[in-house]
Amino acid sequence: MTASTSRSPWKALVGGSIGNLVEWYDWFIYSSFAVYFASAFFPKGNDTAQLLNTMGIFAVGFFMRPVGGWLLGRLGDRKGRKAALTTTVTLMSVSALLIAVAPTYDQVGYFGALVLLVARLLQGLSVGGEYAASATYLTEASAPGKRGFSSSFQYVSMTMGQLCGLGLQIILQHTMSSDTLHSWGWRIPFVVGAVGAAVIFYLRRNLLETEAYEEEAGVERGTLRGLLAHKREFALVIALTMGGTVAYYTYTTYLTKYLSNTAGMSKNDAALVSFCALTIFMLLQPLAGALSDRIGRRPLLITFGIGSMLGTVPIMTALGNVSGFVPALLLMTGGLVIVTGYTSINAVVKAELFPTHVRALGVALPYAIANALFGGTAEYVALWFKKGGIESGFYWYVSACAAVSLVVYLTMRETRHTALTGAEKDAAPAGTGEAGERLTARA
After folding, report:
1. pLDDT, tens digit, for every residue of 428-442?
2. Which ranges carry the Major facilitator superfamily (MFS) profile domain (predicted)?
3. Which domains does the chain have, with CATH numbers?
4. DSSP-assigned letters across all residues of 298-316
């Protein structure tokens, strides 16, 4: 049995995805439950101001992602994808536990907010490396010709993590009073996240290293010097991520609060709308990923760019005035269908841009920078516009970010035929593979 056949793509897919699920469950429940614990860590007063402070800490977590991308991306290239995957989930378990036991403002003043901040910094460190470790592992462990399909499970697992958080929120909303949730009930999901991450740590220890990584033994790996040899790809990842990450966080983590604060829906109904729309969104990811294996990555990215640039303002405007469950569900689902053109394949596109010895670092660092600048600040920018009385300005901001990324999608090379292993390079016909794609792009 050869090395390639002894590695089960499905086992790798499940092993990489289930850990990613717990990582993003812990990451997203902070946002999902922020409406309940915002008042616990800051002085009583304006609800929007409390939420703004809490989302500020949420955004700060994103600024640790470049640090996590550098440290854990370097670890993934030097010590292996498996080492990075187990490290990220350990950090996430610790951070979730810290939030679960953090003291409130009434108990210790602002020290509780400091504990919350430290926990978010650890989460940012962890997720900064998790995205690249998961994207690289899923891409390299995939069967040739199925990388788009396999890597799409990164966002399947991310969405499942968010659905688990929303599902738990819905259960707690129907089994606890609002006062209980604001008092201590919000701590429950963080306890669940800490325990879940600890369990996944042991599951990830049994994963096999990828063939592509093991083929490059003896090569200098994971260095900034090696990464800087690919400056164009580095800049490309930042630019193509910009529009996608803003749109993703707008239509996922922020929209539940938007439906509640702007449209006037109850928190329960808003959570249920998000749960149903995200379930549909999750099921679309493998279909779009498989489509990219047949027609290429660029057509999907271009479709997203055009749809997000032209569709955000009318969709968000309509959602702000929505009055029923079904219209809200249809509008949110429409937005997420557009976002699928980015989410289903962005991981594989970034991994295909870099060679093996800097792939994890090449994916992690520029992606984390883009998320810190645009994804992590999306909710904060949205709330800033709302507080200033010009909420519609945020819709145009999202559209403008998508327009910038669209230019990149239209001019970048196709990556679908990039060979990752020696066997793939030997099997690739003339004119295909990474070199062939580069020549095609230049022609």
Report:
1. 555 444 444 443 333
2. 12-416
3. 14-210+230-417 (1.20.1250.20)
4. HHHHHHHHHHHHHHHHHHH
